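Form 7-S
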Amino acid sequence: MKKIFLMLLFSAFLCNISAQTSPKNDNQRYFDINKNLDIFNSVFKELHMFYVDSIPTDKMMQSVIENTLAGLDPYTEYYAENNMDDLRMLTTGEYAGIGAVISYNNGHVIINQPYENMPAAKSGLKAADAILEIDGIDMRKANVKDVSDKLKGTPGTTVTLLIQRPGENKPRTIKVVREKITINPITYSAINDSGTGYIHFSGFTENSSKEFRKAFLDLKDKGAQSLIIDLRGNGGGILEEAVSIANLFIPKDQEIVSTKGKIKQWDRTYKTSEQPIDTLIPIAILTDTSSASASEILAGSMQDLDRGVIIGNRTFGKGLVQTTRMLPYNGNLKITTAKYYIPSGRCIQVLDYSHRNPDGSVARVPDSLTNVFYTRNGREVRDGGGINPDFIITEDKPGTITYYLITQNVVFDFVTDWVLKHSQIASPDKFSLTDADYEAFKQFVKSKKDFKYDQMSAHSLRNLEEVMKFEGYMDVASAEFQVLKAKLVPDLDRDLELFKESIKDVITNEIIQRYYFQKGVLIHTLQNDKAYQKAVEVLNDKSLYNDTLKPEKSIASSH
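Output:
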């Protein structure tokens, strides 16, 4: 019988921490662990010997491990040997394949987005192409993972796809030569007329700091007098890469981040190790609620050291450090081993996974329990809530209907039809969706009989109605309740018009991506980007920039 993965996992863990703990304090804990492992081992043996059907060993162990880790935090994950490509992609940004995002839509796995200058795009694959066969193997009933596994392979090898393209009667065969796919973290960089450089940075993968350095030097050569670093949507990555980027602007031997965990010997302090490129250029960093981990290290250290202003929305609040640990049979455990602390001494972790509510949920750190810290210049900053911007930009709410139009592929399918009728479009900075196009979209949505959307307000309304009936208030407040109900229940015609602008933006971005990839989407969206415009304003106003970094300056709001 195969080894019990869970036992090996715990055994490896115990071996690694045994030298770091006090036997006097931990004897009972070790006894409890070993007792429960013995019980689990006995249960599994009994099942294997006497259960009426065969036990799916690997599947069961995978489920046990996943359920065990689910009680910790969402970043502690087990990667079996056959999933190591996922871990490698996560940490390095590299994999060998065709360079495309795939998804499931209309009963098939499809090409969702081919990456620019990658094999899929170079071979002619387009968004919405349905994958029917791979190297002669039928993929019509395959799931996304099955197709993904088939598309990956050794660099230089050829994979043959049979695809069905929308608008064509017959399938076509396309051959793609696999390459080592390296996702460039620099999605877009440019300099505007006022001399402000802009870098959109998508992820802290292996060697990403070198790509950032190259982009920054290029902007300086072009005459950049200030810099915007866009970390919106950047979920983080390798901690050392964030330190290296900070080092471009912060003097040598300055602490950027420190990590502290259970094993004190593993605690580390990360300092800048080289002479910086530019310690004077004014910098604005754009953040949003998806800016996490290494993004928060970079943004937080620049804020704590008063090296730049933060503009946008409060960051995600992930102050946890993960380490990969080798396991038997070529598996890996990505485990949370520490919390990180930025130069002011604060930890920005927003959720306390070690203390769960009775229902298993995790609570935010209450504002009343956060602590005040100070930047180098003496500005007040707080822990326990991500990085709060110096200028908060209020964004319009897109409405629940927009979410459902995206997740149910309504926008994607409409754009697929739209693209068939338009061989080309204007450049990203000039393209706009016409009102006639939006009217066509509204009719397209109405033709989708299976399109359904709901609202949290409608759910709350139903709950309120039950409570009012139970407590006897419905008779005295029935008229008012009916008026409120009429306004809050989903209404397709009303909501398509009410949230017209946000829906048009989503459609426009999807269209531009089909012709100009993600770079084109950025070029288009920056034209009316409130955070970007505020950053340009602050960087072009030296007094405003300098005053923001003074201790008496409080966090401002911009609407």
